[in-house]
Amino acid sequence: MYSRKPFYIIVAVLFLAGLALMLQRHFVYEIPWLPGEKRQIWSIEAKVEFEAKGKPVKASLAIPGSQPGFTLMNESAASPGYGLSFVEANGSSRAEWTIRNASGHQELYYKVDMMLDPFAKAPLSTQLPAMMEAEVAEPYATAMDQVLSLAEVRSADGITLTRELIKELTNRGQNAELLAQYKEPGPLLVELLHRAAVPARLLQGLQLEDGRRRQPLMDLVQVYDGEQYELFNPATGAQGRQEQMLLWEYHSSPVLDLVGGSNSRVTFTMLEQEQPINVALAKKFDQPHWINVSLYNLPLEEQALFKGILLVPIGVLVVVFLRIIVGIKTSGTFMPVLIAMAFIQTSLITGLVGFLIIVGTGLILRSYLSHLNLLLVARISAVIIMVIGMIGFFSIIAYQLGLTQGMKITFFPMIILAWTIERMSILWEEEGPKEVVKQGGGSLMVAVVAFLAMNSEIVRHITFNFLGLQLIVMGVVLLLGNYTGYRLTELKRFKPLVDEYKTDGHKHD
């Protein structure tokens, strides 16, 4: 006896491979299971202003990159008359403007789009910063030592020492008041930590608020303790990465390095917007990769084509289920799928009316051709020409009446309609009108169900974004093809037996 084991192994492999591809698309490339999801995009513009001195100018601005919580999407700059380059310096990215001669007030602009992204993995620098303990004049040195001694008693490591130092500096005691005149809270905290041999560096962050203009950067301190690091806001004492906080400069470099100018400042304007998930992710994963099996890498024309093609297996699955399991008869095996595709283009009601008009008129004309005793090829050719003529005629009539939806019947597959008319005409002659209504009605019903499945927004989203679904559909079709039991429509044959059983049961009672 033939073993079915290889068959079930193939089906299992199809299921597992399809599921693995879908999970990979979801967890690695962040494609959501349901449509309609959007991603938050922050557009941030940095404005650099300074006074040029009538000689060569070189302005180097620190710029952000992808980091935990944010993915860089686009960046651009406006600099009339300036040369512009994006360079790497000391591990950080910078925008560098240059010009041979400039004088007077100058304005340079840099714009970046950052996507709020919980999956962003680009790490901050984990390299320990250089320890620089500067010479401090009195009385500041004594004040720093006293603040350190008080904080060290109440701390256990570098992280807790930072917390206690911030408390001491914000308590506004005598030492804190004195040190406030020495340096700003951020640089002061870093210097205190270096004095205590704790690795730390000063960062510059931007608090994102929709619609805010001319905002400055704020100081943040990155403190290391062994293998881990923590961020602190020295002004408020807040610990950890704050919500909507974008790190603009995180390598302890100057935010703006200017040569040939004076009175410089950098301010920021920000705007929040939302983009559909497919647009945002297409920009994020714009570099094709062999494991990124995505149709977004194709040109838009091909993407639009595949959006329709990938729905066909869903329609095929519906036809297989309704024919094998339910037992609905159709005129042609997969003609309902093609009709359903036409319904997607025309809308359901317009498509049904157009289909019935064309097929009904075609059957009347075909009945005349049957009396001419033509050969099959000539007869089919004549039917095709008639179908084209009818589609053109009804489109013109619909246009004259102002029914623009009626013009969409041109999307019907003409060859398939011609064969449908031919098959139904022969069936009428051989089996009678009852069989024509049965198969024609069955075809329309299957086409409507296939249309409802294929036209679902969820189905469209999943078929286009998760190509692994095609393998799962293939496995289901193979399983359905292995079914040899009764169709649901055949169960009515057993109704007399059920009635007889009920009658016998009452007699025994």
UniProtKB/TrEMBL annotation:
Residues annotated as domain 7 transmembrane helices usually fused to an inactive transglutaminase: 254-497
Keyword field: Membrane, Transmembrane, Transmembrane helix
Domain Inactive transglutaminase fused to 7 transmembrane helices span(s) in chain numbering: 25-182
InterPro entries: 7TM_transglut, Transglut_i_TM
Keyword Acyltransferase on entry: no
Pfam families the record matches: 7TM_transglut, Transglut_i_TM
Transmembrane segments: 6-23, 304-326, 338-364, 376-399, 405-424, 436-454, 466-486
Protein name: Inactive transglutaminase family protein
